[in-house]
Amino acid sequence: MKEEELKVKREIAVMRIHSKMFPSISLKEEVSLERLLKVFESHEKFEPNKWGNWERARLDYNKSEIINLANLDKIDEVYLHRKSLIKYSGSFDLNWSSRSYLDFEMNKSTSQKYWSTFFEIFDRVAEIVKPRYGLTHITWDVVRPWTNEHERLKDWMAYASNPAPVDYPHGPCGLGIRTYFGGDILELFDREIFKTIPAIVTEMEWGGIRIDLVDKPWEADPELLFERWLDAMKHLEPAQVFAIPQFDEENGRWIRFSANKVWKEYLERK
Question: Is 9 helix (H, G, I), strand (E, B) or coil?
């Protein structure tokens, strides 16, 4: 295979299919926890078959046991796993704080016909946890170190769509191909700027908004999604919605983020 063909193949390969959210509610409450677990049980091919209260624990999945231990304050986190045809792993915090986190990743080799179900499931998860900020995203392979501006911006998209609690002091890092805003973070900004974004914006019944770069983003061409991402990020730039990226221009290997003015003032008020 020619070098040019290898590069194209590498650029379109899927790195990660994941959903990450910062809930605005506590999942310690039995009703919320049971509703959340029922979402994962609602599709037979996505029902968990293992669980644990830490990353390496692998117990047979038992919803009643999880709820009982949560009620007794014996667990603070729940890890769910499925190791059958459709494989995924993820976790969520039971006790709420400003850094409460929900993080699930589906095996990147999962057939594309199941991608839409993954997005559907985490739309339902969002109804329950009412994310302050969250996203469901497909990350395609990126080139590091960067050799041109196109590669650098694609890597920015990959970094931005992979938030973690450690990023909280900097604020949201960027859009995913499906992004949620709600609660106190959404209240920081004028909702109108989201309504005019060059993307598909849906007002959700739980009070937040959902932003899709395109209709059915799990079916879209990665290059089209990247172009729409650039347009949407540019639209939101004046409102200072996202953290400021800082690029390692010399080595072309990493991107760091710093808080913008809006986010700094928000943290000072808390």
Answer: helix
Q: Which two tokens stand for residue 67?
A: 């709820």
CA 198, CA 185: separation in Å to the nearest integer?
Answer: 20
Q: Is the overall model pTM greater than 0.85, yes or no?
A: yes
Residue 222, classed as helix, strand or coil, is: helix
Condensed to tens digits (0 to 9), the pLDDT of residues 137-193 reads: 999 989 999 999 999 999 999 999 999 998 878 999 999 999 999 999 999 998 889
Residue pointed to by tokens 């976790």: 91
Please give the single-letter amino acid code of residue 170.
Answer: H
**Count of CB atoms within 10 A of residue 205's CB?**
7
Q: For residue 160, count CB atoms less than 10 angstroms from its CB and return exposed for 0-12, middle for 13-18, buried for 19 or more.
A: buried
Please write down the HEC assignment for all residues of 35-81. HHHHHHHCCCCCCCCEEECCCCCCEECCHHHHHHHHHCCCCCEEEEE
Going by C-beta distance under 8 Å and a sequence separation of 6 or more, which residues neighbour residue 219? 115, 116
Distance CA 178, CA 114 (A): 16
What are the pLDDT digits (tens) for 105-148? 999 999 999 999 999 999 999 999 999 999 999 999 899 999 99
Q: How far apart are CA 109 and CA 111, in angstroms?
A: 6
Measure Cα distances from 218 to 31, 34, 68, 176, 242 in Å: 31, 28, 36, 12, 24
